[in-house]
Structures are given as C-alpha cells and as structure tokens.
Amino acid sequence: MRRRVIIGALLLVGVAMAGGVAYATIPDANSVIHGCRNNATGLLRVIDPDTDSCRTSESPLDWNQAGLTAGNVTVRNASGPLSSTESTLRRDCLDGEIATGGGVSGVSYDGGIAVVTDNIPEFGGPNSTPTGWAGRVLNIGPGEVQAVAWVICVRP
Question: What is the value of pTM for the model shown?
Fold first, then answer.
C-alpha cells in the first residue's frame, strides 16, 4: 500500500512538472511566436502550436521575438504573463522609425480568459507620427493569460 502511495505521488509530481513546461511555450524554445491570420479580416491571434492550430479560415504566421527585418521594415515585439487582471502593453519603434501598424493579443491558459481593449497606435506628441503601439489585456477568468504586443516600424 505504501509503495503505491509513493509511486502515485511521484507520478503526480511528474505530471505537474510536465504541465509547467507546456505552459511556457510562448514564445517557443527558439524565441518564435506562432500565430494565425484570419484570411477575411486580417486579425491576428497568437497560438501555442502544441495545444492549438490555425483554423481553415486562417493562414499561419510566425515571427521571432527579437524582431523581423525586411529592408526598411522591422517588426518589434514583447511578450509576458499578465502581472494582474489588467495590463497595458506597449512596444515602441526606435528613434527615427515610424509605426505603421501593430497589435496586442492575449492567450488564455488553465481557465484564463483574455480580452484585448484599446488596441491603438501611440504618438510621441501632438501632431506627430506614430512611434509605437499599445493595448490593454484583461484576464476575466480564474486562470493565466500571456500577452503579446508588436509594432511594425519603417525607417523612412
């Protein structure tokens, strides 16, 4: 009987540790963030490819957490778990770059429910060009939420 209890406890610890590893897969081990782009609306959502996949109405879209560069265009992003039930995320372009687009996304875990609000460009001052992107992510569920913000920057 005692041996069964010990074996059961060891199995439970192993499952808990495996769940912890599975939780931390955005970005993946190669710093790649996996997402899906809705073919009709262009909306993006971040996924964990180990537990989710793109729908038939979506195309896969992956990017590196460090940023993607193509000529004068760079995608800069940041991600992390929510520190509370509400977090504002912001990602800025470098000096001399102009923000041409961006977004904020939330991924739910273990019963968390991510809701994105105020997904807007940020400006350096009155009458200036956009310099970054910001948004707010709410967690209205009892579980965890991972949030990602990105901005598309162009150097004129």
Answer: 0.53
